[in-house]
Please model this.
Amino acid sequence: MLKIARPTCASIMEQPPVIRLIDSDVRPLAETMARAFLQGPNFVYTQPDEARRRQTLPAMFSCFIRIGQQVGTVYTTDERNGAAIWAAPGRHAGFIDSWRAGFLALPLRLRFSAVVRLGQLGTHLSSKRRALMPEPHWYLMALAVDPYQQGKGLGSHLIRPVLTQADRAGQACYLETFVRQNLHFYEKHGFQTLGKCTLPNGGPTYWTMKRLST
Model:
């Protein structure tokens, strides 16, 4: 979901170790993700005002990270300069998961229009994913790299652990991206484009991608 420049071999070798996030203090990583997605088409759509978006995205990503910890896994680095949030095969966030993650309090921070658009976006993406991927799969909820660290291969570094695990278990992976330039990045990691979609009522365009185990 993030535009990532093509890494060089040297930059990949310089990357710090990727670790699984187990900390309860997710705010530093949420702030990194907020910076990375500040101009993301899906977040611009839900909150067109940049000042409001800059203010509320950290809280939103804190919820996303906690959801990832509950229904899947979150990989990051010691510096918290990027993250890959995955939902594990067969896992879906229920009411209790959403409550624990703080999603039920999130509307208090957002304007009504943002809450409505966020709900429409989530419902649309979930429906599309169920239609395209009825089989169990890993779902890449978000991949983010701090803008100051982009172009160094960190995105590849962050998704590699789950891709390796999926290959060993013979499991598929799925994602959506709202940035056309991301297609090449994911194709290098074995993803194939399933289709191009546009959210109704003037919403953004996005691409769905699937990866079979190798």
User: Anything to note?
Assistant: Residues 1-13 have pLDDT under 50 and may be disordered. Residues 76 and 83 are 5 Å apart (CA to CA).
